[in-house]
Amino acid sequence: MEKHILITIGRQFGSGGKPVGDALSQKLGIPVYDNELITEAARQSGYSPDLFIRSDEKKRSFFLANLFGQTSDVRNMIGDAELFRIQSETIRNLASKGSAIFVGRASDYVLRDMKCLNVFITATMESRIKFVCERDGVALENAPGIIERRDRIRAKYYDFFTQRHWGVASNYDICINRSTLGTEKTADLIIEFGKMRGLI
Q1: Per residue in 103-149, pLDDT tens?
Q2: d(C-alpha 3, C-alpha 5), whole Å
Q3: Helix axes 125-136, 143-162, angle to 10 degrees
Q4: Superfamily of domain 6-195
């Protein structure tokens, strides 16, 4: 019987967590879900993907339109908690159907009652700046501020919905600095560790 492999990847912004997920997907022959979760969650819920994109790994205090009682736009009628619930159900449904790798979206918490290998990817600031500049076309002088802001947003989202602290080592099975080994060897190390744990 084929092993049911579930891997969750938390990551600092610009650390290369998605490329590591892609490398794991190729090496293990199982699907990786990142932005695909948005499309799937939208499909299952019937809401527009744009609604999930606007809320992706962000925690807003409220919708301003709700404050003034305006309900003409669907975005005013569904809050962040409901979007998180829908996306969490999507993650759990995919996990129950077969092996998968999930990038971000507090997936380690969402699947906390399932047997998962929970990974956190970090990298040096120098490496993250280079990665973000190359991937997103960001000016070198703007990259540090963007990285710090996106990390704060991810932390706020994760901390609010999980009642844990984002990036804290004790939340994960293994934390790896991708800039030390590079993408491929980081994926190899994760697989080796997962086999030692009996999860791969």
Answers
A1: 999 999 999 999 999 999 999 999 999 999 999 999 999 999 999 99
A2: 6
A3: 100
A4: P-loop containing nucleotide triphosphate hydrolases (3.40.50.300)
Which region, left, alpha or beta, applies to residue 64 given φ > 0 means left and ψ of -120 to 50 means alpha? alpha
Q: How far apart, in whole angstroms, are the C-alpha atoms of residue 19 and residue 36?
A: 14
DSSP code of 73? Answer: S
* Rounded distance between C-alpha atoms, residue 21 and residue 8, angstroms: 9
Phi, psi torsion values for 103, nearest 5 degrees? -105, 120
The encoded tokens of residue 54 equal 């606007």
Structure tokens at 45: 């819920």
> Would you put residue 179 in left (φ > 0), alpha (ψ -120 to 50) or beta?
alpha
For residue 118, list its beta bridge partners: 8
- Residue 78 pLDDT level (bands cut at 50, 70, 90): low
* Residue among 128, 87, 125 at smallest CA distance from 109: 87
∠ CA 192-197-198, nearest 5°, is 95
* Residues 120, 82, 112, 22, CA torsion sign: negative
56: left (phi > 0), else alpha (psi -120 to 50), else beta? beta
